[in-house]
Design goal:
The chain is mostly helical. The chain is built from 21 helices and two strands. A two-stranded antiparallel sheet has the order 1-2. The chain starts with a helix and ends with a helix.
Length: about 450
Amino acid sequence: MVGEILLISIVLAVIAGVIFSLLGLISGTDETAVMVPITLIVVLLGAPPEGVFAFFMAAVLSKHLTHAIPTALMGIPGDTMATPMMEHAGFLRRMGMPHIALRKMISGGIIGAFVALPVALIFAWVLSPFGEFFQSYSGLIFTIAAIFIGYLSKGRLASVLLILPMAMIYQGISHISASVLEKNLSISFFLGIAIGPMLVDLLIASSRSARPQVTKSEMNTYNLAPDRKAWKGRFPNPFKVLTKKQSAAVGGTALISSATFGLSPVGMTSMMGELVGSRTKGQYNKATSSLAAMNGVTESTYIAETIIPLVAFGIPLSPVALGPAQALFNAPPVYTSDPVNNLHTLLQPIDFLIYGLLGLVIAALIAYPFSMNYARKATVLIMKKINQEAIIGMFIGLVIVLSFYEGGIVGSLVTFSIASVVGLLNKFLGMSVGVQFMIFYGSSWMITTLLGM
């Protein structure tokens, strides 16, 4: 039995490494929108929890290694987490050294991931005695978190003011769908939240009045630097790519960011980059050191913000747990967070270490040499042959299929309705997807306790 689970976990980690290494090359592929539906498919297909966790860890590492390729070589962010790195990557690109930026980012990501896994498990162990408390007061905690994260988001006061109205929308649609289907929907709701920003981009393009906002008169032009290889073999040592000081900076920032599981991953990436940059002299050293540390933090925040709430509490209490890692907590009928019946109850801490490490190692063996040796060739292929709108359409279609699986036509309509509202609020008022997930999970408590409905 153990051998079978191990084999399945290896296969799933390889699949994740390949898929998400390729997705990382496509700029604009939001982590939540691509990770949630694919992970959900793995769960619903009946994969063992060990395999699901190995799959997700491999997905995180590979996605955040290859997202460095469009960021460094083309000057466009590979995804949301790559946005804070644009300034330093742009400086090195203007200096004719995008290949240096790429190597530093990828090497930092590898080190950051392997630091984060054991550190996150230690913090989860420390916090685990408070698990029952967090589960008992989850509604109140989600409400407070929604207010806090909402005020820190781009929407600021608007996000806070819309918390109760959005809670009423979620509960209203939930009651309508439950009265029709005689069961509560869950997957359809969080898939709608996940793809909201993507769907709105397509809706804007389909609207005659809004289309001018996204219409371009000429095609984008990108200048790619030639390949420059300064090592032998296919797998360069990341500690030799980075200086000793840079390796220490990556390890230190990964350690710090692994402990702050409740904060924004993008915010932590930016903050740690500024911290390293402020302590480094010379623009070149500042840029390379900051990039290495920042990409390490993209890995460490995602890993820690998944593992700590999953192992310690079993409910999604971090921006990553509420977003990309959602399916590890809540994927009815397989996993649920209320009552808690998910990886928290199905795996032991040692399982998280073993299968998490398995996923990271396999992803590193796939994504790291691929990024180091074939970055330019892969980028040219993606830009010439892959249509970004087609990728967005594919994921929206995948989400509709999953929602139909849960609730038929009603489930698909729920997903489309939620995605439209969430996407518009995100696009025009800056109400982040993380806030929306917090509201969704706290909406029942808000309506029954605060409004008495």
